[in-house]
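For reproducibility, we list the full input for the zinc ion complex.
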Amino acid sequence: MSAPYPWLEAPWQRLLGSRAHPVQALLLAGPRGTGKGRLARLWAQTLLCEAPQADGMACGQCPACHWFETDAHPDFYLLTLQEKTGKEGEIRMATAIEVDQAREVVDFVQLSTYRAGFRVVLVDPADSLNLAAANALLKVLEEPPLNTVFVLVSDQPRRLLPTLRSRCTRIDIGLPPVDQAAQWLAGQGVADTMNLLALASGTPLEAQRRAEGTGLDERRAVLQSLADPARLDPVTAAERWKTLSPQIWHDVAYKWLGDLLAVRLQGSVLFNRDFTDVLTHLGGRADLAKLLALARTQANEGRTLAHPLNRLLQLEAWLMQYRHVFD
Ligand SMILES: [Zn+2]
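The corresponding predicted structure, in tokenized form, follows.
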């Protein structure tokens, strides 16, 4: 295994070289869309792996690797933004990492490790720690317990508490050279790489997301399933669509529901004219109250797009509710 992306090769080799004696507080800083989060997770897995390869890389086979890949490693802790339920029952992302969450980390690192190796705490996005949470974390970072490694990830390191930042060994992840980013994008099957990179201010992962935004084939596949609610299996469909970019999903679902409402209320299709027959048929069968409720849920989801946590469950719930519109 090499670095998750070609432009991360240098920082990745630097990390690998330190595997036997890793720094206990690491800050990965750099623009959004450069793969810092993925680098941080790979580093965590590499530290936790119990049968590392000769070059120090995680094996991907041992129990520790399996636990890690299923988010179940007992010596790994992810400190991140959590979902919250709002006043009207809507789910939205918290805007800060709260002190209670940070206290749980403090407790976690006081315990003895479950396995014999390292324990890793990943804080992402670290610039979302509120002041109290940052102070709580600072205390453990000042004297980190043995074999405990903190990895902080941040797009906006200047927003971090200075005392916290100064505790960390910082690795800056810069934008890759344009040629390298363009070559990587082309390898992902993306056309028009230079324009997309320009639109994404040079960040390759953001450019890739934009390329997916034009995913017409994906739109068609989703709409064909939605067109046949009786045969739509929420579990299978959610599994298949969980990798869709949230923007595409939201855009497709939002317009589909809009069309069903338009058919129901004014007898015409606004967006998906290529599905007019299906929409006319389905719109006539839809339970208006349930359809309106689902459209409201969808509008709320639009506000939490940047944080596709629990994507699978969210999709399943949506699809379940969608089927009931036609009961
Ligand atoms: Zn392993």
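The pocket of zinc ion is lined by residues 49-51, 58-62, 64-65 (CB under 6 Å). The chain has 15 helices and seven strands. Both points were considered when choosing residues for closer inspection.
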